[in-house]
Every structure is written in structure tokens, then in C-alpha cells.
Amino acid sequence: MQRWIIGLAALALAGCASTQKVLDGPITETFHSTKSADEMSFCLADRNNTVPLPRDDGSRTILIKNGYGAVSLAFSVYPEGTGSRVEYRKKFGTIGGAWKRCVGLKPEKS
């Protein structure tokens, strides 16, 4: 039983390290939008069934995880004037592209 608990704790810590590793990694692409940071964060989180995480610097982070719980994509959304700046980091995988509508890479559905 004790080994099981230690193993579970190790997996939990590994997941946290994975998230920070992705956020510390290089930016894959940067997007600028006229949507506010609140609106952009909501769009990215809503389309990916997750929640935006508020950060101390006023930004919000949206993490997209694969089926194993590892972070595949990370979005950092910063207020920029009346709009927003989105820093996109891709770690691995080809997770769906619903987020592309939020940043303007695909047209919004009517």
C-alpha cells in the first residue's frame, strides 16, 4: 500500500514538472488579437473543455492535455491594450485544432 501511495505521489509531481517544462519551453508561435484577454482565455478554454488558470502577472494559462494527462499544448494569454497576445507552445502531438478559431487561423462558424 505504501509503495502505491509513493508511486501516485511521484506521478503527481511528474505531471507538475511536465507542465512547468512546457511553459518554460520555447514559444512555438505568437498571436495578437482584438479580443480581450478575458474573451480569448474563455474561447481557448471553452473549446478545449478546460479552465483558464490565472497567473500572478495578470496573464492566464490554458493547458491542453493528451489522454495520459501530459501537457501537449499550452497557451499564455496576456492583456495587450484593449486586445490580447497569445503565446502558443506545442510540446508534442496533434491535438485537435478547435483553438485555431479563437486566434483567427480558421474562420468562426456561423
Q: What Rg is obtained from the alpha carbons, in whole angstroms?
A: 15 Å
Q: What's the helical proportion of residues?
A: 25-40%
- The number of helical runs is 3
The pLDDT mean sits at: 82
Structural class: alpha+beta
Proportion in β-strands = 25-35%
**Bulk shape:** globular
- Name the poorly predicted regions: 4-15
Distance between the termini: 54 Å
The beta-strand count equals 5
Order of helices and strands, N to C? HEHEEEEH
> Which sequence of strands runs across the widest sheet?
1-5-4-3-2
- Biggest sheet character: 5 strands, antiparallel
State the main characteristics.
35% helix; alpha+beta; globular; 5-stranded antiparallel beta sheet; 110 residues
Commentary on this structure:
The protein has 110 residues and is α+β, with helices and mostly antiparallel strands. 35% of the residues lie in helices and 28% in strands. It has 3 helices and 5 strands, in the order H-E-H-E-E-E-E-H. It has helices at residues 2-24, 37-47, 99-103; strands at 29-33, 53-54, 60-65, 71-80, 83-90. Strands 1-5-4-3-2 form a 5-stranded antiparallel beta sheet, sandwiched between helices. A hairpin with a 5-residue loop joins strand 3 and strand 4 (71-80). The protein is globular.
